[in-house]
Write a structure and sequence with these properties.
The chain is mostly beta strands. It contains two helices and nine strands; from the N terminus they run αβαββββββββ. The chain has a single domain, classed as Immunoglobulin-like. The termini are far apart. The relative contact order is 0.25.
């Protein structure tokens, strides 16, 4: 499913957005690095699952927030280098990170769950349960 299909399908995530990142980046101290971790989003009948690649991130430096239908992932990835060694080549991101997603009205905020395992953050975004169809009585005058 493409990003446009996710937006048009009244999906759990209405529009992944990095709109807040520039605000945070501008507010960050000059010695702080801000990066955007890669994210995959999967659709299922129950809702969506968001997977974020966060190698080297500890749960104590990771925060998830929901405010005004916006899910925000933010935190810090610390550098891991041997003592008395200098970096010759580096591919892993380090520093502060941020990702923000606008959620649709279909998200059941009370049932969102997250876990960090082996450097991958999994956020489960269940849909609000749909009510069973009911008959509506039609009255006549």
């Amino acid at each position: 499913m493409t990003q446009d299909e996710l937006s048009n399908d009244r999906s759990v995530i209405a529009n992944p957005s990095n709109a807040d990142e520039t605000t945070v980046e501008a507010a960050a101290a000059p010695d702080r690095v801000l990066f955007t971790p890669p994210v995959d989003i999967f659709d299922s009948p129950e809702g969506l699952v968001l997977l974020a690649d966060l190698p080297g991130v500890a749960t104590k430096t990771l925060e998830l927030q929901i405010q005004d239908n916006r899910l925000t992932l933010l935190g810090r990835c610390a550098a891991h280098a041997p003592a008395n060694a200098r970096v010759l080549h580096r591919e892993y991101e380090e520093g502060d990170f941020l990702r923000s997603f606008i959620l649709s009205e279909d998200v059941d905020h009370e049932r969102i769950s997250a876990r960090l395992l082996n450097g991958v953050l999994e956020v489960v975004l269940p849909r609000v349960p749909r009510g069973a169809p009911r008959k509506i009585e039609v009255k006549s005058d």
